[in-house]
Amino acid sequence: MLHPFRVDRDPCVPVRVRAGLTADEAEELAGLVPGAVEGGTVVVGLRAVFEAAHLLADLEVPEPPVEAMWRRMLAAVALRVGGLDTADGEAWLDAREGLLDGGRFDAARVAGYFDPAPERWRLYGGPRPFLQDACLADEGGDLAPPGRLVMTRASGANALWADSTPQDVPVEAGEAVAWLLGWRGYGPSGTVGTRSCGGRSSHIAKASPYRALISYFPHHPDSLFTTLVLSVPAPSAWPANPGLDRAPWESEQLPDPLSVQPPPSGPASLLAGRAAHAVLLTGDDEGRTVGCRVTWGTTADLPPATDPYVIERDSGGPVRASRSRAVWRDLDALLLHQRPGDKNTLRRPTVFDHLAELDPDLLGVLGVRALGWDQERRDVDRAWYSATTPPVLRHLAEADPDGAAAIAAAHRSAETWAGKLRGALASAWRGANSLRHKDDQPGFVDQGAARYWERAESEFWTAITTASDAPPAFAALAISCFDTATATLKSTSHGRRATAQARAQLTRAPRKAAASRPAA
Question: Which helix (H) or strand (E) holds 41?
Answer without folding.
Answer: strand 41-44
